[in-house]
Structures are given as structure tokens and as C-alpha cells.
Amino acid sequence: MKINQNGGFAKSRAEQNRAAVEEDRVLPKDSRAAAEPAAETFVLSPELIDDVVASLGLGPRPVEVQTIQIGDLSFPVPKQSKDTAQNMDSNNDGVLETWEVGEYYQGALEDLGLNCNISDYAKTEAYHLAGAKPDYLNAYLSSRQISQKLAELEENHRDRAELVVLGKSTEGRDIQALRVSKDVRSEASKSRPSVIVTGGLHSREWATHESVLKAADKFLAGDSPCLESLEVWFVPNSNPDGLEFSRNGNSMWRKNTWRDENGEIKGVDLNRNSSFNFRPEGDTAESTEDDIGGSDDVNAVTFRGPSPDSEPELRALKALLDAETNALGHLDVHSFGELLLIPGSKLGASDKEYRELAQAVNIGMKDVDYRIQDSADLYPTSGVLNDYADSLGMSALTMEIGTSFQPDPSGLESLLDNASDGILAFVEHLGKKNSAVNRP
Ligand SMILES: [Zn+2]
Asked: What pTM did the predictor assign?
């Protein structure tokens, strides 16, 4: 028996099969009397019939799924989603509902140990299957709106904020950063040690863009001593094409919009494309069977790309990391799971500094308690941007904010508030540590 989201019970397919078989057995009263077997006839018991039916894989044919139902809205099932929708329609009624989508993924998400709001997760997936724009779309900012917010922040804080274009995306959009420091246009500000915060590397992680924006907003409006001692780079939208693609009927899209030789959008996972540890030993380009940490399959969500550093978005971010030779740290904001991930397996080596940094971020977020763990313990990864920052000697941390890719708008404000506080705690911790080291 499976519990659905309304707390009711959905019949399993086997139970439905049994019920249908029982219905078939109900004959009109008089015909039943006529069919009364002679005493010596072998009687098939109902249990035996069920066993035979089950062993032959018979029973009613699955009903073809015609509709995806999300709350009050129903959508026809697009061709490309037919098979998936059919697999998920556990009560076999021809209508795929969000609780069925949630049930389908729940086990896998639990196995990963992620804190997850299944109903928000399932809603995003259901919109993706329907190829429709989510009803909560306008609660989130588009790439154009993020650019507008950045321009506003620069305009309102000209002494502290400077908009910088790091490079161009696959489709020619600007990859923008807001450089924040006291007297930001002075030469002195450029030589200050820096902290780099990136968000939106994965398209579907819609709250990450805005938590970086919100952190920039709070930092600019406040009076942190770090404004004078540091140069902080806020990059809220690392993958602007991907964000737009995910907002237009592909809500589960994670990659950029790289096209294959036929001109079809396949996308590269920008967080698997870095030349640092691009292809772990034993993972060959010729096979997808031996994939480790990233995939050579263009259709995989973790496709690592045709070659190391092939993607312009990743190159723009790496150029910033490379140029900032005095950078103290890099924080990469992702979602979801409520985790603070330390590159590789440093905690195993009991790295006190990393643990202190992650704890400072956690303490900075008042209403939540994120789990601190080695990223290697979540799942193996390769070609990761944050690992590259770590290899350059920066304090690197990945934050997995919230409990779904696109939280319901009702929970968005508190999520952004906590996440932005966590981001600023990262900045403050590194700033404080640095000034303590440099004190005469
Ligand atoms: Zn991510």
C-alpha cells in the first residue's frame, strides 16, 4: 500500500489487478447457479487464479497517460514525456498527478540524504514533463531582471559597487559580476584580498541566483569592516542562457545550451567541465559505462562537455579565479539539500580551518541547520569549479540551499534571507581571519 500526499491510500498495481479479476468473476446470480461445478470437478480457488494471473503478468492493460495534473491545472502529455509519465502513473488511471511524481523520486532522494520538500520537487518535475512554464515562474527573476537588479545596485551605491562583465555566454549574454569594496573605483580597492561568490551555475536552481543578489544587496547596505578590507565579487547568474531555457518549459534543465553537431540543444554541465580533474583515471572518452563523477553521454544531466574548459561560461568564471591571485575564498551556491560541502574529503583528514569556515556559515543562518560534509561523501564528482578554486589555494565551499530546486513562493523569502546571511557569514569569516593574520 502506498500513502499518497493527501494521506489516503493508493492501490498498488497488483491490488488493482486483483480487484479487476474479482469483478470479472462476479456473474449474474442464475448463471452462477448454472455454472455450479459438478462435485468431482477441480475448482480453481480465487487465490489460485490470482497467482496464475500474476505469474503470467496478465491483468488489465495499463491505461495510457493522457493528462498531467498539477493542482487545478491539467496539461496534455507531450510525446517526449509519454514513457516517463506512463512509468510514474502508479494508480494506472491515465492521469499523472504530482503525488505520483513525488512517490517515484522519494526513495532516491532519501538515499542521497538530502533534505527535500517532495511536493515542491514533484511540482517542478511535473511542469518539466508537461513542457509548461510553472505557475510560480513570476516569483523568480529572469536573466534580464537579474541584470536590471545588478545595474540598480551599482547605481545606488556608486562608491561601493562596480558592474563588471566577465565574459559572454554561449548565446552571447553577458556574464556579470558586481565588484564591491570601499571606494571601488580606486586602485587601492583592486589590490585588496578578494572573496568570490557564484550562483546559478546550474540553471534549475532558481533560488541560488537571488540569494547571491540578496547577499550583495545586504552587504552594500550595511557597514561591514570587510567593505574596507576586502574586494567581494558577487556573480549571481553564472549560466544566463540555461536560466532562460529552464524558465521556458524545461524547468528541470541543469546545463548550459551547448548544441551538438546537428544543432540540437544538449547542454554541458558547467560544474563538470573544468580542466581540473576533468576525467578521473579509468573514465575513458569512448565509453559511458566507465563514467566517473561526470558523463560522456551528451544526454546525461552531468555531461562534462566535448573537452576540458570548452564552455565560455566556465572559462569566464575561471578567468576571474585566475586573475584574483590574492583571493581568500570561493563560495559556490547551489540547491538543494541543506548541505555545506567541503571540497574532496578534507574532513576525513580533519581539516580544522574548513570545518570552522563551514560552521561560521551555518551559525550565520539563524533559522536552519545545514549538514557539513565532505563533497566526496555525497557522490563522486569531477571537473567541479569549486574544486578548481580549492586547487588554487582558496578556501572553497559549496552551499546546497533549500529543500527543492524551485521552492514554492511562500517559502522563498525566508530561504533567501537565510542563504544570503550564510553567504555574508562566509565573507565575514574570511575577512576577519585575514585581518587577524595581518595585524602587526
Ligand atoms: Zn547545482
From this structure: 0.85
